[in-house]
Amino acid sequence: LERFDDDAAGTGATVLASLLDLHPIAKRTVAVPLPSYSLKIIEKLIGFERKAVEVGKGDDSIVAYTTARDSNDAAVQAEIIESIRAYNEEDLAATWAVQEWLVGLGDTNPPS
To answer: Is it the case that residue 112 has pLDDT exceeding 60?
Structure first.
């Protein structure tokens, strides 16, 4: 929004107001002996396993998209776009799994 502004209907601001950043919540909730609290690190801690292998991280998806955009082969474009879609779907599933894990930590009642 800072870079491109919002549309007249305020769609970007509406979406932004609906987002929840799990990173600071995870940092406040648990102490883990890991190098960071990034999604890729925490998802492994909770046992989330990825299946998509073509695109493995956000930077890869940018390179893949550029390759698809520059290709004149529709089949190649479709294959690359599908790999990006699969990566994004797994990111969403991993984020959901981390959220559910964090919520589950709050469900534990301490002994009285």
So the answer is: no
Q: Express each pLDDT in 60-72 by its tens digit.
A: 888 999 999 999 9
Q: Rounded distance, CA 57 to CA 48, Å? A: 15
Report the C-alpha gap between 32 and 42 in whole angstroms.
9
**Token pair in block for residue 39:** 């999604």
- Please state the pTM of the whole predicted model: 0.75
Q: Which residues contact 61 (CB under 8 A, 6 or more apart)?
A: 55, 84, 87, 88
Residue 34 near residue 65, CB atoms below 8 Å: no
- What does 48-109 look like in DSSP terms, one character per residue? ------S--SHHHHHHHHHHHHH---HHHHHHHHHHHHHHHHHHHHHHHHHHHHHHHHHTPP
Burial of 42 per CB tally in 10 Å (0-12, 13-18, 19+)? buried
DSSP H or E stretch at residue 12: helix 11-18
